[in-house]
Design a protein that fits this description.
Strand order of the largest sheet: 2-3-1-5-4
CATH class: Alpha Beta
Largest sheet: 5 strands, antiparallel
Number of domains: 1
CATH architecture: 2-Layer Sandwich
CATH superfamily: Ribosomal protein L5
Shape: globular
CATH topology: 50s Ribosomal Protein L5, Chain: A
Structural class: alpha+beta
Strand content: 15-25%
Order of helices and strands: HEHEEHEEH
């Protein structure tokens, strides 16, 4: 079992239940899924960028990403509906906890001049989205073979419908929020 999943079951759930006065065990906030998204706009000119993005995201998550396609045609961007423009992965269960553990303990501390992540990026329903400027902060990505740097969005989908409860859950998992 994943280390953070055990920590949630043994410690974090009890702390949150006590801190917020929750009586129903199903109302305790929990992590449902983590979605990683890489928008690769340059894939229109260079198809190898999309392949490199697929390889990098697969190495980071341990799961094969799906290629996302444009829904609309936008002439100003030379974009047609159906063109591949990104890749994404949805992590659940143990893979989700393993990724969160690597993100908090390895990847975020490797970011240069890191002061913490914004505590205000919640969407009003308890979900949190953060951006990473380049994929090279993850140790799974081979920097020597990397053709280009690409950022990604990481979304944490959390049950509970409360930003305050979700913030406390992520803080208990070790997420380094700015002070």
């Amino acid at each position: 079992m994943a280390r953070l999943k055990e920590k949630y079951n043994k410690e974090i759930a009890g702390k949150l239940k006590e801190h917020f006065g929750i009586t129903n065990p199903h109302a305790i906030p929990r992590l449902r899924k983590i979605v990683l998204n890489m928008g690769i706009g340059k894939a229109l000119e260079n198809k190898s960028r999309l392949d490199a993005g697929v390889e990098d995201l697969a190495a980071i998550t341990g799961q094969r990403p799906i290629v996302t396609k444009a829904r609309l045609s936008i002439a100003a961007f030379k974009l047609r509906a159906g063109n591949p423009i990104g890749v994404k992965v949805t992590l659940r269960r143990d893979m989700m906890y393993e990724f969160l553990d690597r993100l908090v303990s390895i990847a975020l501390p490797r970011i240069r001049d890191f002061r913490g992540i914004s505590p205000d990026a919640f969407d009003g329903h308890g979900n949190y989205t953060m951006g990473v400027s380049e994929q090279s902060v993850f140790p799974e990505v081979n920097v020597d073979k990397m053709e280009f740097t690409q950022g990604m969005d990481i979304t944490f989908v959390i049950s509970g419908n409360s930003d305050e409860r979700s913030r406390e859950l992520l803080r208990e998992f070790g997420m380094p929020f700015e002070r």
